[in-house]
Design brief:
Radius of gyration: 22 Å
Bound molecules: P-hydroxybenzoic acid
Helix content: 40-55%
CATH architecture of the largest domain: 3-Layer(aba) Sandwich
Number of helices: 13
Number of domains: 2
Shape: globular
Oligomer: single chain
Largest sheet: 9 strands, mixed
CATH topology of the largest domain: Rossmann fold
Distance between the termini: 66 Å
Order of helices and strands: HHEHEEHEHEEHEHEHEHEHEHHHEEEE
Length: 393
């Protein structure tokens, strides 16, 4: 029988449709599929790459098959903070590609848009960064391996008051994580006995930080607490603060570690020296596990210093492997969630566990100071608050 190329194509497509499966579904018998949604292009492309590097290290270490099944990663790009695109991609991944799990996202708006898709499809969604407290409450199929803004902001507020800061201003990015950071810092700082003397919120898209920094400077507070998303915005804020001589004028600047993210810290130069921040991970964290992690990531991609996003991607992917192993490759959304909920393991950042009540991460939070070690600017951890749950819940 002679079949033209075109005929073959039509014939096979018809057969796949008749079997009621998508093309990949038909071939998927021995395959476990993970749909990774990230902001690979656009203003958060560096952060997406950081997460991807962590995923890639886990894949390299654990291999591409478990329990006789092949692991297939299907990557999708939202192109930035685009909830509509994120939702469409998640929908395609669960309906057409029939993924067994979803993972990823740097940004809160993208995570929130995917929550309903995870619920309807009963597909676990492993959050690798997005850090607004409410996210895990939006679907019983969400589990988070990154952090929350209240988790790192409240301990910093307490540290600040104990260390002589009695009055503070807040400057945050005007969306989920910024509002969480502002509320939790204010609550913990006033509860400790401190006074909030003013606040300002900066738009998420294309912010010009100069007028906001000026407003803080004019108010002459003892200190300013800041949150902006890691990356280009943190650089923009630091530049505006340096130009307006905010710190030189006597105002102490503190913030979450998003501001002094390892990926961009070096490019901030000496203006960042001495800044105190709180976070769940530092490149300079001293442990054999972190040394193996940073060496491993740098062997894969030497262009970016591993950061907290990388550790979120790595731990999230390691957790996915653990679930597949325990299920012996027989994937089931509800059974997978039950395993995620009792998860506990040693991360490059220190010990981590999932709180079964909230599906959010419990971890040590570190207070760090930017120092020069050799020729590198790094966040040196000098204080630790152990086993912090998200206080935003
Ligand atoms: C978020 O959108 O949840 C987000 C983004 C960047 C960060 C932290 C949180 O550095």
């Amino acid at each position: 029988m002679k079949i033209s190329k075109r005929g073959l194509l039509i014939g096979s497509t018809a057969a796949i449709l008749a079997s009621g499966l998508g093309a990949s579904g038909a071939m998927a018998e021995g395959t476990i599929k993970i749909g990774v949604i990230l902001e690979y292009s656009g203003p958060f492309a560096v952060q997406a790459k950081e997460i991807d590097n962590g995923i890639n290290l886990a894949l390299e270490q654990r291999g591409d098959s478990i329990a006789g099944k092949k692991i297939e990663i299907i990557r999708k790009d939202t192109g930035g903070p685009k909830p509509d695109v994120a939702k469409r991609l998640a929908t395609e991944l669960v309906t057409r590609d029939k993924v067994d799990m979803l993972a990823g996202v740097v940004l809160t708006p993208n995570a929130l848009a995917i929550a309903d898709v995870a619920t309807q499809a009963k597909v676990p969604f492993v959050i690798m960064n997005a850090a607004t407290s409410i996210i895990t409450a939006k679907s019983p199929y969400i589990v988070r391996f990154s952090f929350t803004l209240p988790q790192v902001s409240a301990p910093l507020a307490e540290w600040a008051f104990k260390n002589g800061i009695k009055e503070a201003y807040t400057l945050v990015s005007d969306y989920g994580p910024g509002l969480d950071a502002e509320a939790s810092f204010k609550k913990a700082f006033t509860a400790a006995g401190g006074k909030i003397v003013g606040d300002v919120r900066v738009p998420l898209s294309n912010p010009d930080f100069a007028p906001y920094v000026q407003r803080v400077k004019d108010a002459k507070p003892q200190a300013v607490f800041v949150f902006v998303p890691a990356g280009a915005q943190a650089i923009g804020l630091m530049k505006a603060a340096a130009e307006r001589e905010l710190v030189k004028s006597g105002i102490q600047m503190i913030g979450t570690g998003d501001m002094t993210d390892d990926a961009v810290l070096q490019s901030m130069g000496d203006a960042a020296l001495g800044l105190v921040t709180s976070h769940h991970y530092s490149y300079a964290h001293k442990s054999p596990h972190n040394k193996a992690f940073t060496d491993g990531v740098e062997a894969i991609d030497n262009s970016l210093r591993p950061d907290f996003m990388t550790v979120g991607g790595y731990d999230g992917m390691i957790a996915i492997y653990k679930v597949i192993e325990q299920l012996k490759g027989k994937m089931d959304g509800d059974k997978a969630m039950a395993i995620f909920k009792s998860m506990k393991f040693e991360s490059p950042r220190g010990p981590i566990a999932i709180d079964p009540a909230t599906r959010d991460i419990v971890q040590d939070v570190y207070i760090r100071r930017v120092e020069k070690v050799g020729d590198k600017l790094v966040n040196v951890e000098f204080d630790k608050i152990p086993s912090v749950k998200d206080p935003g819940k």
